[in-house]
Backbone:
C-alpha cells in the first residue's frame, strides 16, 4: 500500500496550488489543486516497480521538405482504449496501478513513452543529455541527405479530471481556470529547458481523431525546433507586416464569421478554413503565449472557452471529435509578432460523415473545402445559443 508524502506547495494565480513530486521511475509529476479544493496536502507515493524509461527517440530529416520526422517506436505498443478498471490516468487503486498515485484535481506528468525526450540538449537535474542533440535553429534548418538527431525535448500528459470519461468541455469554469494556470506554468517551465524552441499544449478528443484513452486529458509537446506550421507563419509575417496577426483579428471581427466574443477574446471561423469545422480564438491584446496573459485575460478565457467547446458538441446529437491546438510563439524568435491563438479543427462534415484527406490534401497540401466558413459560423452560433452560460 502506498505511503503518503506532503510535496512542497506553491500558490499560483487564481488560488491554484502546485505540488511537485516524482513517479517511481523518476519522471516528474505535478499536481494542480483547484482553489477551494477538498483535497488535503498529502499525496500517495508511487510504489510501483517500473522498468527503466525507453531510450530517447531519433529524428530523421526529409531533405526534400526540410521537415524532421521523429521515430518513436516504443509508442507502437501504447495502451488502446482500456476500460475504466485499467485507466492509466485515473488515481491509483489496489487493482489499478495507474500513472497517478493520488486523487487529484489536475495532474501533469512526463509521458512514459514520449515522442521527444527524456534526454535534452544539455543535462539538467531531471534529464540526461542527448547523445546527438540538435545544435540550434541553424543546425535544424540545414539540409542534407541522411541527417539525424536525437529527439531531445519533453512530452507531458495533462489530466483534466480524475473522472474516467469526458473532455475539456465537460469541466467546470473553476477547473478550466486551473487547467489554464497549469498550461501557463508548464509553458514557463518547459520554455526554460535547454534546447526547447516551441511549447505546444493540445487536446485530441474522440476516436475519429485517433484518441487511445477516453479519460479527459491533453498533452504538451516541447520541440527542439520550430514546427513547420509556425515556420510558415513566421515567413508570412516577414513577407507582409509585423502586425499581421492584429490585422487578421481586426478583419475577422468585422466579418460574419465571429461566433463568440467577450472583453478579451474573439472566437471566429477563419476566412480560409480548411476543415468542415474550424474555429480560432485569439486574444485582443498581443500575447506570445500563456505566460504573457494577464489574470483578467485568463479569467475571461475560461467561460468563453467552455461555451465554445459545448457549442461544438451541440451541433449534433453525439459529441464531435476534434483537435484543440494552442499555437504559441516560439521560445526565442518571433515573440513580438506571433500572437498565441487556439485552433479547433474537426473532420466531421455532417452527423454521419467525415472528411478524409484524399489525394490533393494528403499528397499536395492543396486543400479543397466543401463548406463555406460563413455557413459554419452561422450553424455554430445557433448551436452556441442553445448552450447555457457555464
Residues:
Amino acid at each position: 500500500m502506498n505511503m503518503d508524502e506532503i510535496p512542497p506547495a506553491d500558490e499560483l494565480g487564481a488560488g491554484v496550488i502546485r505540488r511537485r513530486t516524482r513517479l517511481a521511475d523518476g519522471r516528474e509529476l505535478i499536481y494542480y489543486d483547484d482553489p477551494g479544493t477538498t483535497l488535503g496536502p498529502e499525496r500517495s507515493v508511487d510504489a510501483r516497480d517500473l522498468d527503466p524509461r525507453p531510450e530517447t527517440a531519433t529524428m530523421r530529416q526529409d531533405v526534400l521538405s526540410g521537415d524532421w520526422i521523429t521515430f518513436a517506436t516504443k509508442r507502437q505498443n501504447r495502451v488502446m482504449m482500456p476500460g475504466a478498471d485499467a485507466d492509466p490516468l485515473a488515481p491509483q487503486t489496489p487493482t489499478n496501478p495507474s500513472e497517478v498515485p493520488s486523487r487529484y484535481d489536475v495532474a501533469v506528468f512526463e509521458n512514459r513513452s514520449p515522442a521527444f525526450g527524456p534526454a535534452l540538449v544539455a543535462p539538467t537535474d531531471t534529464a540526461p543529455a542527448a547523445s546527438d542533440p540538435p545544435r540550434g535553429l541553424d543546425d535544424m534548418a540545414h539540409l542534407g541527405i541522411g541527417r539525424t538527431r536525437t529527439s531531445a525535448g519533453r512530452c507531458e500528459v495533462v489530466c483534466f479530471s480524475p473522472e474516467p470519461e469526458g473532455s475539456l468541455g465537460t469541466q467546470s469554469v473553476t477547473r478550466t481556470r486551473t487547467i489554464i494556470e497549469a498550461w501557463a506554468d508548464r509553458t514557463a517551465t518547459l520554455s526554460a529547458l535547454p534546447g526547447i524552441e516551441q511549447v505546444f499544449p493540445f487536446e485530441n478528443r474522440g476516436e475519429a481523431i485517433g484518441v487511445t484513452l477516453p479519460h479527459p486529458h491533453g498533452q504538451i509537446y516541447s520541440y527542439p525546433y520550430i514546427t513547420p506550421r509556425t515556420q510558415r507563419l513566421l515567413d508570412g509575417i516577414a513577407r507582409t507586416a509585423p502586425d499581421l496577426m492584429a490585422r487578421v483579428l481586426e478583419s475577422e471581427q468585422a466579418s460574419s464569421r465571429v461566433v463568440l466574443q467577450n472583453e478579451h477574446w474573439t472566437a471566429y471561423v477563419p476566412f480560409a478554413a480548411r476543415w468542415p469545422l474550424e474555429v480560432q480564438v485569439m486574444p485582443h491584446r498581443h500575447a506570445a503565449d500563456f505566460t504573457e496573459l494577464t489574470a483578467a485575460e485568463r479569467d475571461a478565457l475560461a467561460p468563453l472557452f467552455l461555451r465554445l467547446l459545448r457549442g461544438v458538441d451541440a451541433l449534433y446529437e453525439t459529441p464531435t471529435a476534434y483537435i484543440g491546438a494552442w499555437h504559441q510563439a516560439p521560445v526565442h524568435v518571433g515573440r513580438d509578432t506571433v500572437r498565441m491563438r487556439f485552433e479547433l479543427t474537426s473532420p466531421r462534415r455532417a452527423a454521419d460523415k467525415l472528411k478524409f484527406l484524399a489525394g490533393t490534401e494528403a499528397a499536395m497540401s492543396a486543400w479543397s473545402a466543401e463548406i463555406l466558413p460563413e455557413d459554419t459560423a452561422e450553424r455554430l452560433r445557433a448551436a452556441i445559443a442553445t448552450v447555457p452560460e457555464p
Summary: The mean pLDDT is 95. Residues 4-224 form a domain with the HIT family, subunit A fold (CATH 3.30.428.10). Residues 173-191 form the longest helix (19 residues). The chain is about 20% helix and 25% strand.
